[in-house]
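Narrative summary of target 7.
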Amino acid sequence: MKTVFNIVLGLCALVLVYICYASIMGPINFEEAKKHRDAAVIARLIDIRKAQLEYRGLHDQQYTASFDTLIDFVKNQKLPFIFKQGELDDKQLEDGLTEKKAINIINKAKKTGNYSEVKKWGLENFKRDTMWVAVLDTIFPKGFNADSMRYVPFGNGAQFEMAIRNDTAKSGAPFCLLEVKTPYDVYLNGLDKQEIANLKDLQTKLGKYSGLMIGSLETANNNAGNWE
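Modeled conformation, tokenized:
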């Protein structure tokens, strides 16, 4: 009986040690896994933000709420790249010459073949040429997979929630708001449920979104991420 008692006592001690270990390491392991997944989701949100900013620049300051449209833009569209040679000096600027006027003078000379104005203003070495470069070659690294932008890392095929809203400023000027987000439940799925519940409860009490996001449909924030 004494031997059996000692064995049972030893097992109980091992269980207590395991419970103590789990209570300490559980939150630590969860936080490490969360940081890893956060980093992947944030990187994807930043890629979406880059694409949307370039899209807006070529579409009358409007974002798109469609991933199909955004991905097609990244894969098939081109961005203007201005090649610059030469700068206007202080004397030229004082005489009222601007880059726009200089370009007009040069373009007129090319059409007419008369370069007297170009020489008069000293614009022989002044050039501004627009080149069109593929979006994929401009803002993303080589081998970037545009089709992946819509999918949430660790989300088992889930897509980001993306929406836009058009509004008007007090001055009367129209503007477009963008919001892209994904909740904790999507990309932390498979981790400790209680830790996820605790995280969501904390964010709710703080009045914050329970997940990661860029932008906002409620207020203009320059498409900032809620981790920034």
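The mean pLDDT is 87.
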